[in-house]
Every structure is written in structure tokens, then in C-alpha cells.
Design a protein that fits this description.
Length: 153
Amino acid sequence: MKHSTIPQTRRGHRGGPARRIGRTLALVLPVVLVLSGTLAVTRVNWTGSPSSSLLAASDVSSAAVSAKKTSRAPQDVLRDQLMGELQQKNPGIVLTHLQQAVNGRPSLARHCSSIARALGQAAVRVYGASRAQSFARPVCDTSFASGVLAAHS
């Protein structure tokens, strides 16, 4: 009788290290994904106003906060700046500043209409519909006027 040199597998074998790692991942990975998703949702500012403060699910270092502020899109920074300016100056001046910003940074041109529309809506709240309409001019395809009309309707 001759013995074979080919190793035979045992039927009762429960699996090697790869199988144990796979089982561990199958149990741990869903828990990690659920927790990370939950933490991500609690970090989102759902109020829509950038200035409101929310409680975070975890402690936030000052470096993370400053990184978040510096990573805002340029059109959002411009919109917030012009909205603040609208509280102190008339819409005509603010529209001039919007046009200057778009002329100085052409990449903002595609956001000009939405910014002007938001300014028009805000101007109605500050000045009333008829007075806000008197400041309208053809900045960003008359989007300021359409914002005034939308806020008045």
C-alpha cells in the first residue's frame, strides 16, 4: 500500500484565520457604519442658517471649526457678506458690489442669479415690495427683480 503525498482536507475543520477575520468583519462593520452615519447626521446644520450653533455629537476642536469656516464655497461667502451689507446699505449699493464681485471673479457668474434673487427677497423684508423694486437693475439677468416679485407674491 502506497501513501499519497497530497494533503487531504478535514471535513470538521472550522476555518482558518481568513474565515475568522471575515466573521469578525461581518459583525463589526455594520455597527461601525451605523455609528459613523449617526455621527455624520448629528453634525449637519439642518437649520439652514450658517450662524446658528448646534451641539455636536462629539467634541470639536478649534482646528476643525476653523477648517470648516475656511472651506466654505466662495458664492456662499459672497451671499452672506452681501446679505449682511443689505441690512446697513441700500440694495442699489449691494447690487453694485455683487456686479463688481462677479466681474472680479468670473467663476461666480453662474451663482449671480441665485444671489441676486436672494437679495431681492431680503430687500422686500427690509424695504417693502414697492421700495425694493425701485432698486432693481439688470444685474444677473434681472434676478433681483424676480426675487422681489417672488417675495411679494
